[in-house]
Design brief:
Layout (H helix, E strand, L loop, with lengths): L1 H51 L28
Length: about 80
């Protein structure tokens, strides 16, 4: 029983150390990237989307006509 408790203690410490490393080297890096780059990209995309809602023609239409325009968004990769 004492050996089992000792193994549990050692395993728990190893798990805790691994979770701390995973957070620092993995989760924190991903969070920083999202906060720094993706949020800016999202804000820009929303601004373009909002402006495009009123855009209904490339060449002009009469008042009696309805029109719509579809936009295709292309993005470069996000690099560090």
């Amino acid at each position: 029983m004492i050996d089992g408790v000792e193994q549990l203690k050692t395993g728990s410490k190893e798990l805790n150390d691994g979770m701390i490393k995973f957070n620092e080297d993995g989760i924190a890096v991903i969070s920083e990237t999202v906060n720094d780059k993706l949020l800016n990209l999202t804000d820009n995309f929303k601004a373009v989307r909002d402006v495009s809602k009123e855009y209904n023609t490339f060449s002009g239409i009469s008042d009696e006509m309805n029109g719509s325009v579809k936009f295709i968004y292309m993005f470069d990769e996000i690099s560090e």
